Amino acid sequence: MTVELNHTVVYARDKRASAEFLAEVLGLEVGAPFGPFVPVDTGNGVTLDYYDAGDTAFRPSHYAFLVPDDEFDAMIGRLERMNVTYYADPSHHEPGQINRLFGGRGAYFDDPDGHNMEIITRPYARP
Q: What's the predicted TM-score (pTM) here?
């Protein structure tokens, strides 16, 4: 049996703004609203369904995106144009830098709701 992640809900204070932010950084499209969700579809069939949390408190989460190496610089450029600080590390101690883990490149940045987003060009090696 093959199990695949199909979608996940991303809580936001403003679902439209947060979906548009991520779509702009990644060079993706925001989909048509689906019920209470504003979707952003990724290239591997996983959808991030942005949902207004209202007064409900939520903890920021981490989302990592495997991106084409030839698109990485454009994404960094979009972050810079949007005045979004990116970091080489998940704890955000190395601003304006990227990492070069596992022979690829990567960076972390916060979305408007504090979710720790990551772009990487190579999957992390697992033991």
A: 0.95
